[in-house]
UniProtKB/TrEMBL annotation:
<dbReference type="InterPro" id="IPR057326">
    <property type="entry name" value="KR_dom"/>
</dbReference>
<dbReference type="InterPro" id="IPR002347">
    <property type="entry name" value="SDR_fam"/>
</dbReference>
<keyword id="KW-0560">Oxidoreductase</keyword>
<dbReference type="InterPro" id="IPR036291">
    <property type="entry name" value="NAD(P)-bd_dom_sf"/>
</dbReference>
<protein>
    <submittedName>
        <fullName>SDR family oxidoreductase</fullName>
    </submittedName>
</protein>
<dbReference type="Pfam" id="PF13561">
    <property type="entry name" value="adh_short_C2"/>
</dbReference>
<feature type="domain" description="Ketoreductase">
    <location>
        <begin position="3"/>
        <end position="177"/>
    </location>
</feature>
<comment type="similarity">
    <text>Belongs to the short-chain dehydrogenases/reductases (SDR) family.</text>
</comment>
<dbReference type="InterPro" id="IPR051122">
    <property type="entry name" value="SDR_DHRS6-like"/>
</dbReference>
Length: 246
């Protein structure tokens, strides 16, 4: 029987690489996004069998619609990767209420209610994965709100792992270090500043480089697989050692 997977924020970067990886392993995959350009790009980049859906990860109404569509299409889900995220770098006095609310809506609230609405489709053996960040454990200046959302995801994964274990549903989180994806260009830095930023971060990574989207996709594939059936409530750090050294 074909295994099914939903990937939010699956039209570029880590989400796209994960969709390609799971599709190559025989999953029926649905990815979501809200940017018309990346939605169109994903349709061209992904295998023909992967379905690309427009859905705002911060909208509870879209979550309800998506859950209904998936129920009608598949009847059940085996893997849910909660990958969609927004990040607005700003100091404490530089972020407004709208920017604060959007980050929590997309990174926390939308994920919680999507999972709530998908719950009837999840059965024994299914896997839920929150895509978090090392910022959940380590302070990053200018990213306090973003880091707070990532910490909330880890807390949700742990509590839901305990709550959903009697149903046979596993819940885990991946905390990312620096990964070279198109999201870096959304930080709003000029090219020279972005290059300096990447060099500064690389110097703090024990493995001496940024990770790749494929390396994260491989970690997701493991947590989704039968090889990880005794793994739940875990926070897997995939960071090249970033944040480990004193």
């Amino acid at each position: 029987m074909t295994r099914t997977a939903l990937i939010t924020g699956g039209t570029s970067g880590i989400g796209l690489a994960t969709a390609q990886t799971l599709a190559a392993r025989g999953y029926a995959v649905v990815v979501t996004g809200r940017n018309p350009r990346t939605l169109a790009d994903a349709e061209r980049a992904l295998p023909a069998g992967v379905r690309v859906e427009r859905a705002d990860a911060g909208s509870v109404a879209d979550a309800d619609r998506l859950a209904t569509d998936l129920g009608n299409r598949f009847g059940a889900l085996d893997v849910v990767l909660l990958n969609a995220a927004v990040e607005h770098p700003a100091p404490l006095d530089g972020i407004d209420e709208a920017g604060f609310d959007e980050q929590f809506a997309v990174n926390v609230k939308g994920q919680y209610f999507l999972l709530q609405k998908l719950l009837p489709l999840l059965g024994p053996g299914s896997s839920v994965i929150f895509m978090s960040s090392t910022g959940a454990q380590h302070g990053l200046p200018g990213l306090a709100v973003y880091c707070a959302t990532k910490g909330a995801q880890v807390a949700l994964a742990r509590s839901l792992a305990v709550e959903l274990a009697p149903r046979g549903i596993r819940v885990n989180a991946i905390t990312l270090g620096p990964v070279d994806t198109p999201a870096l260009t959304k930080l709003g830095m000029p090219a020279d500043e972005l290059d300096a930023f990447k060099k500064t971060i690389t110097a703090r990574v024990p493995l001496g480089r940024f990770g790749t989207a494929q390396e994260i996709a491989d970690a997701v594939a493991f947590l989704a697989s039968p090889e990880a059936t005794y793994v739940t409530g875990a926070t897997m750090m995939v960071s090249g050692g970033f944040g480990v050294a004193a």
